[in-house]
Amino acid sequence: MNKIVKLFLQYSPFALVVFVVLFDLIIPNSYWFVVARVHVTDSVVGISPTMIVARSVLRPFRGHWIATVKRAQNETETAVYYKECSAVSESDYRPETVLPPNLDLNWWTFPIKCELQPGAYIVDTSWTFHVMFFERTVRAVSNVFLIKAPRVVIPAAPTSNLSIQP
Length: 166
Known about the structure:
By secondary structure, the protein is of the alpha+beta class. It contains 2 helices and 8 strands. The chain has one domain (29-148): Immunoglobulin-like (Sandwich). The protein has helices spanning 2-26, 105-108, and strands at 33-40, 43-44, 51-57, 61-72, 81-93, 119-131, 134-141, 145-148.
């Protein structure tokens, strides 16, 4: 019995480290955080597009996030996107926290307010967090959304009730 205890005490720190490292490698990012959908609605210049985000925080963590709004070079299916604006920050994520009911792009990229001109865009967001020994990253890319020029309404010319008398 004494030999077993001695072996256990000799190798248990090593076994514990191996267990923790393997646990951290095997457990997927979705054990902590899942983003199922980031949807941005079409909008008009000057009005922040609304967003629908389906995400779940399953375990608490502190994360670093980057939200980048990218504009399409052209409006084809094989469009090339380039950075229009981005925001970077850190937040504490907890299972009981929820996103605001009137979520929009200005909230998503706070404190940056993206002034988008007419065109096609996507939002590319990544969250990076450390759990135990390793850095983990979750990334979500939105649908393509359009920003349109505002409609200009020209009022009809006023009609006059004046009549010309001969």
